[in-house]
Amino acid sequence: MKFALLLTSVALSEKDYHGFKVIRASWESSEQTELVGSVLERLDTINLWQPESFENINYTRTVDFLVSEKEAFEFKRRVGNGADVVTLIEDAGDIIAHQATEQKRATRGLRGASYPYDQFLTYSQLEEWILANDDGELMSSEIIGETYEGRNIYGVHLGDQDPTSNKKKVFMECNIHAREWITPSTCKYFIYMLKSAKNGVDLTPSSFSMQELLDILDHNWYIIVSMNPDGYQYTFDSDRMWRKNREPNQGSQCVGTDLNRQFPVGHLTEGGSSNKCSSTYAGVEAFTTKEAQIWREWFMKLRNSGGGDIEAQLSVHSYSQLIMPPWATGRVAIPEDPADIDYQMRVSQRMQSALFNVHEKVYRVGQSRDVVGYPAGGTTEDYSYQTLGVTLSWVLELRDTGAYGFLLPADQIIPTAEETVAMFIEVSKELSSRN
Ligand SMILES: [Zn+2]
């Protein structure tokens, strides 16, 4: 950790987003894409939210971006009638500052297991929480690797701790993208809800029962609560909008690789960038980052450890409210639909309706590359499905649909987690029903 402390102490002061707006733009033809795209690329202060890279901007979906007030005005002036423009967030800096103050106030003086669940935790707090909750019975944790800045990555095992357990396995990673704060919070609350149920404390919402939750333990769950600790901590210390990891790139001033573009299926095809300064920089080849290597090593270790195989894989992201089986890779690299798409869609639709029943949130369902509106090569989802042979693999994009985006308020953590757990229960039921 010494190295990490050193880096933290020399880090630049926090990036200030006061006066920055989040804008949503939409338009109707490919000709206008050129106009809007060229205006967007010339904005100095732009931080793209959806899609994540300029190459993926097209007229079939809206574009959400953060930009200074001055350039927001400039954007509207230059595109004129060429696009519909709405302001989603008037002042992102206000929200960031408010959340930071609340976060500090709500966690001050607390330790380990006592942190509130309706608050985001810094990485060291999250780490403390994991260690404090490791009871060796329902939940165990292990250090599965170390990041560039020297932080530990933890793998959590929920379920039967007997090493000879024959149960099927579910593999899940959260927070592979740094700024998606709702994802480690949701995965953490899932663990808490299950542990509480095991102790007879019912935290389930009215749409599913404690018994249905406990039935999840028909399988062994393996969860990486934060896949990107360096990037995540950086969003607290320096830049709330950071997405990648924090490892420097040789020959470039620009830091970081998009960890969910680092896997071999479709690597550096559409949606993954070879530009080191891009927020979707995919690395010169697959598995150049420690985090991606750690993901693969833990997966292989679990698969080879005997007992049941890994039969489902979940990659938890935000935002947009989507339930997406493969492919994420574009049709140039993989023209055909997945062989299992009908089956994957059937299970996805059951997850969608179980989720809706919790808080009536509507999540859309479909192949990643279709439902998001752009392809992304090099994801854990496609690697799990194609290379590792996990038929049920998903990207889940949690709340919301853009009112707050990555700045989702902390009071939505518990409801978001509740509806997400409803999806996990459906995955579990599906695995139980298979031979
Ligand atoms: Zn993401």
Number of strands: 12
Number of domain modules = 2
Tell me the β content. 15-25%
**Strand arrangement across the biggest beta sheet:** 5-6-8-7-9-12-10-11
The small-molecule ligands in this entry are: zinc ion
Give a brief description.
With 435 residues, the chain is an alpha/beta fold. The chain is built from 13 helices and twelve strands. The chain has helices spanning 2-10, 30-41, 69-79, 92-107, 123-133, 182-198, 210-214, 229-237, 290-303, 341-359, 368-371, 380-387, 413-433; strands at residues 21-26, 47-50, 63-67, 84-89, 139-146, 152-158, 169-174, 220-224, 310-318, 322-324, 364-365, 392-398.
What does this structure look like?
One of its GO terms (molecular function) is metallocarboxypeptidase activity. One of its GO terms (biological process) is proteolysis. Keywords: Carboxypeptidase, Disulfide bond, Hydrolase, Metal-binding, Metalloprotease, Protease, Signal, Zinc. The longest helix has 21 residues. The N and C termini lie far apart (45 Å). Helix content is 36%, strand content 16%. It contains 13 helices and twelve strands. Helix 10 links the parallel strand 10 and strand 11. The chain folds into two domains: 70 residues, 2-Layer Sandwich (Alpha-Beta Plaits), CATH 3.30.70; 307 residues, Zn peptidases (Aminopeptidase), CATH 3.40.630. The protein is of the alpha/beta class and 435 residues long. The protein is globular, with a radius of gyration of 21 Å. Helix 6 crosses helix 13 and helix 10 packs across helix 13. It has an eight-stranded mixed β-sheet, sandwiched between helices. The protein has a four-stranded antiparallel β-sheet with strand order 2-3-1-4. Bound molecules: zinc ion. The site of zinc ion has 3 residues, from loops. The site of zinc ion (ZN) has 3 residues, from loops.
